[in-house]
Amino acid sequence: MVSHLEDNPDVQVLYRTTGNVDLFVEVIFRDMEELNAFLENELNVEGITGTEVTIVIGPYKRCPCTGL
After folding, report:
1. CB-based contacts of 51: which residues, under 8 Å, 6+ apart?
2. Beta carbons of 29 and 38 less than 8 angstroms apart
3. Are 8 and 22 contacting, i.e. CB atoms less than 8 angstroms apart?
4. Would the pTM of this model clear 0.85, i.e. be above it?
5. What distance in Å separates the CA atoms of residue 50 and residue 43, rounded to the nearest whole number?
6. Using CA atoms, how far apart are residues 31 and 3, in angstroms rounded to an integer?
7. How many structural domains comprise the chain?
8. CATH number of the domain that residue 38 is part of
9. What is the pLDDT of residues 10-67, one digit of tens each?
């Protein structure tokens, strides 16, 4: 499942997480149709039992990562 998402050019960021979810996937699309197609076609694979979508409206603050 992870390699399937790693190879997808729409996936910008892929994190392994703790808590209620196992993965955090960041994708960027031009419209809701592209998002819906991704959800239906790319996340409809064995091992994914559910999804939660959060749409980012805009940042309050964004800092560059330095010193890593």
Report:
1. 39, 43
2. yes
3. no
4. no
5. 9
6. 25
7. 1
8. 3.30.70.920
9. 999 999 999 998 999 999 999 999 999 999 999 888 888 899 999 999 989 888 877 6
